[in-house]
Description:
Layout: E1 4-7, H1 20-36, H2 40-54, H3 57-65, H4 69-76, H5 82-85, H6 90-98, E2 103-106, H7 111-121, E3 129-131, E4 137-138, E5 141-142, H8 148-157, E6 165-169, H9 172-180, E7 184-188, H10 197-204, E8 212-214, H11 223-229
Parallel strand pairs: 1-2, 1-6, 2-3, 6-7, 7-8
Antiparallel strand pairs: 4-5
Bound molecules: magnesium ion (MG).
Amino acid sequence: MHPVWLLDLDNTLHDAAAVVFPRINRAMTDFVVARLGVPEQQANELRQFYWQRYGATMLGLVRHHAIDAHDFLHATHPFPDIHRLVRRDQRLAQALRRLPGRKVIVTNAPAKYARGVIKALGIGAFLDDVISIESMRFAGRFQPKPSRPMLRRLAARLRVPRARCVLVEDSLENLISAHRVGMRTVHVTGVASGVGKMARKARSGSDRRVGLQVQSVTLLARRRLRSAHLSP
Ligand SMILES: [Mg+2]
């Protein structure tokens, strides 16, 4: 049986660190300043606080300031030019085409942005599904990665045992959650720009909960590597 690949998008399939994330950051601060009527420094502190407390700025704004999540997602992902920021990646497309098993994008980003990135990368034809943050709402609230209940629900929704799911991600925190619900994991370390080798090593350490580390998703197309590390 082939695995079901749960693929993160930003900093896993493309480099979002250089241009995309700084712009999202800027837009989030502007949004908090405008909607909450607070100075920039306070907006940044509030964002930081909610990010630490809930794992996402949006969750704090929805819960404590009656902000509409869709307004927030729309305003903080201003990317009409995404096709110019994300380059078509032939090697990635070929690797996904060759990778056996279902491939599902699982991203905490909104659907419209995710679709734009997927189109720009030229990988849409090799994906079976896209799960964006809009689909991670249940029990009355958004529960994005690293929510363990969300990961369990996701596997159930895909009708696949969790042990057959492989989460492929740059975020160690998300990978640890996946490991804790019984999924397998691949840590992608070489995509985000501005992260030095030493920093990557320090960040990932030799965490046994993270099964396999690769520089790039393209390496997963190698059968020998998969059979050595990911065979059930
Ligand atoms: Mg990521």
